Every structure is written in structure tokens, then in C-alpha cells.
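Entry 14. Structure prediction run on the chain below.
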Amino acid sequence: MTDQKTNTPLPQQAQQTRQLVKKPGLFQRLINRMIPTPADFFGLLAEQSAMVTETLRNLDLYMQHSDIQTANILSEDEHAADSLKIRNLHQLNRAFSTPIDREDIYRAIESLDWIITHCKSTINELLDLDVEPDSHMQAICKELLQGSEALQQGFEALAVYPAAAEEAAHNARHSHRKIERLYRHSLAELFQGEVTTEMLKKREIYHHLMDGSRKLHAAANVLHDIMVKLI
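Output returned:
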């Protein structure tokens, strides 16, 4: 047997390897086309949750320094998150089978994306209303980041040790409850004395951060639902 490119004899081991490596038959190729290899949905959701954490880390950085460069990075984060969401939804739509309920995968994709959307809307409000981050915004954002890190740990655990996701979901929900208290305290401190335009502007920012926390809570509930069905 010779190499078709060089017309030189092939070693015996190489000849045997070529004989063993065969293209799949017509029937197998048809099956592969009709039933494509399922996507790694656990990996896709873990990647998306990591993007949420990265975005919230950038939001936390902006709350500390409020520089325009970080604001631009957050805009890029949203575009990257949109691409991840579209990719994940496309994989879900074309999947013949999924390791967990399709509805749960869809809910997870949407809830994770909404957290990033609220991060971007918070930055937009800060810039458009010309508001400097205060200590309340910084405290809420730090708690959002902690909740997001817990979410990420939970989604990463689904593929290897689903039971660990229960504690992660609990920690994320705990962050939401702390944010609720921080939110009420911030409003109580803000609206003292005569109402001013500055008060109303800050109230809008607090509200956007609170909405982000509600989406964090929703994502934690989805994570918990998936975990229960897996174990």
C-alpha cells in the first residue's frame, strides 16, 4: 500500500490505521443529520452565568470609581450577553433532546439575561441622570455580585454534582433578601425632608438595582427547580 500523495510505501502500522478508520455509512450519516449531537446545555448555562458575574463585577467597579471606560465595558458586556443568549436559544430550538426540561432551560436563559439587562439600564440611568453612585448603591451592587457568584457556582455544579446547586440557590436568594432590606433602608434615608429632583433621580437607580435583584431571585428559583429534577 502506498501514500496517494507521495506514492511512497506506508509503514505497516499506518496501513492498518487507514484500514480501521472508515467513514460512517450512509444510514449513519442520515441518522446524524436527523438527530444531531445534543448540545452541552449545562456548559452553556454555566458560561452564561459566568457572563452575569463578570458584568456585575464591572458594575461594582463602576460604583466604586464611576469612570466612563468601565461604563463602555458594561455596554460591551451586554452585547456579548445578547450573543450568548441568542446562541443558547438557537441550540435549544434545534435540540432533539435535552438533559432537563426545555422550559427550565428557557427560563434559565431568560432570567440570567435579564440580570445583565438591568445592569445596563442602571448604568444608562446613572449617566443620563448624571447621578454619582452613593454608599447605598455600592452596598446593593456588592450584594448582587455575591448572589451572582453563588448562581455561577450552582450552574457549574449541575453537570458534576447537582446537589451542590441547592446551597448555591439558597445563597443567591439570601442575597436578594438582604438587598430588599438595603433597598428599604436606602429609601427611608433618602426621603427625609423636602423632596428634591436629586432624591427622585437616586430613587430611580435604587429601583433598577432592586429589579436586578428580583431577576437574581428568579434565576435562583430556576436553578433550584433544575436541581430538584436532577436528583
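Residues 13-21 have pLDDT under 50 and may be disordered.
Filed with the rest of this week's runs.
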